[in-house]
Amino acid sequence: MRIFCAVRHAADPQLFSSALWSSNFYPALRALECEIVESEIDLAPTSRFMSVAKDFTAQEQEARAVTTQRILDEVRRSHEQHPIRLFLSYFYNAHFDSAGFAELRRLGIPSVNFYCNSMYQFEHVAQIATAVDISWHTERDARPYYLAAGAHPVWVQMGADPDLCRPVHVNARAAKVCFVGQRYADRDRWLASLVKAGVPVAIYGNGWGVDAGGNAQDLPESIYLGRRRSKPGSLSSYIELIGETLRRQGRGRGAGRLVSLWTYRNETQCLAPLLLPHAKGRADDLSTTFGRYELCLNMSNVWADGRAGSALIPHVRLRDFEAPMCGACYLTGHSDEIEEFYEMGKEIDTYRSEDELVDKARHYLRNHASAERLRNAGLRRARRDHTWRRRFEKLFQKIGLAGAVAARSI
Q1: In the chain, N or C terminus with fewer CB closer than 10 Å?
Q2: Is residue 27's pLDDT more than 80?
Q3: CA–CA gap between residue 3 and residue 321 (Å, rounded)
Q4: Which domains does the chain have, with CATH numbers?
Q5: Buried b / exposed e across 12-21, counting CB within 10 Å, b at 16+?
Q6: What is the tally of helices (H) and strands (E) in the chain?
């Protein structure tokens, strides 16, 4: 099956957004003997404003229109050479004019758009979701958002590549809790509870006080495509936040939200010195980093509306499949959905409170045999059921293309 793929948010290989999803998707698709036709159009110019959900400036609309037309031209040329059976994208509203999907239908090419932030950033993909043939969402409970918008959702969770995420042999693992990820939402609160309880931790990623390298895609404070971009943490960024909050929620609720934001920000600043001594900067590859430590920790909460100060909701993450695939003894925040993929306490483990986190972290650090049992069982389950190949098999089955893949594989 010949698949046109537009899933890279930038062409520059130095950018995190460049190869994240292509490195996950492509090996699985090739293993299913699919032929990949990769878009050569750089999405970086539109990715720079993909946090904007709607009300684009005239310049932003023009940039999106140019990108859309260039991608459609690519598809037409490739389709004329040999038929394209599927258009697979990872578009936000900013990347692609939703009207472009009608042109794909005229060409007889079904389209699927992947999106993994639906529970708290659905607005950023709402225009795409209503126009694409199939909206592939990874969160089980995101389906109502798509249905309410008139979209056609298909739920298939994320997975992991066993060639990228694999156990790394070490002579001895450090008796520490390892976390890899940026500072976000309540992650610092969970980590602080471990530090205060005397549980040794190692923290990797951005925002923890050690320069771990920024995103080269970020621009300094400036005007880009008719929209002012404020540098994070600057006075102008706070002024913009105040204005946006009051516009969205009105003066009464908005003022309350701003008080909550200010309180949360002050608490975050107080925790920073506590966590700084445990910050390690940028991690090596996941397999190597996880292999060094006895216990791998993850947090599942996200802001309900994608903005700091809103309610925290649990969310199954990519790490929930990568870490067990790396052979990590894995402990993550509890959610109902994660129970559909692992047997709790036997393949991975979860926590619901700070006390439970501390107790379970101590248990696995002090009981090597228990950690090994969890590590080995989680690895077996991940390799058996949670590879990207399994996910694409399920996706193709749900959208009626399983026969096309099977025929090619014979």
Answers
A1: C
A2: yes
A3: 25
A4: 2-157+387-409 (3.40.50.2000), 174-216+274-385 (3.40.50.2000), 229-272 (no CATH)
A5: eeebebbbbb
A6: 15, 16
- pLDDT at 220 (0 to 100): 54
Contacts of 106 (CB under 8 A, 6+ apart): none
d(CA 84, CA 109): 7
Contacts of 27 (CB under 8 A, 6+ apart): 161, 163, 164, 388
Residue 385 CA to residue 166 CA, distance in Å, equals: 15
Give me 249's structure tokens.
């929620």
Rounded CA separation 62/44 (Å): 14
Q: pLDDT for 146-189, tens place per residue?
A: 999 999 999 999 999 999 999 998 889 999 999 999 999 999 99
Q: What is the mean pLDDT of residues 234-250?
A: 64
Tell me if 124 sits within 8 A of 113, measured CB to CB.
no
pTM of this prediction? Answer: 0.90
- Phi, psi at 289, each rounded to 5°: -65, -50
What number of other Cβ atoms are within 10 A of residue 170's Cβ?
11
Q: Categorise residue 56: left if φ over 0, alpha if ψ from -120 to 50, beta otherwise.
A: beta
Mean pLDDT of the region 283-293: 93
Average predicted confidence (pLDDT) for the chain: 91
pLDDT at 245 > cutoff 80: no
Question: How many other C-beta atoms are found inside a 10 Å radius of the C-beta of residue 350?
Answer: 22
Q: How open is the CA angle 343-283-346, to the nearest 5 degrees?
A: 10
Question: 373 with 364: CB under 8 angstroms?
Answer: no
Q: Cβ distance 84 to 110 under 8 Å?
A: no
pLDDT of residue 253: 72
pLDDT in tens, 53-78: 999 999 999 999 999 999 999 999 99
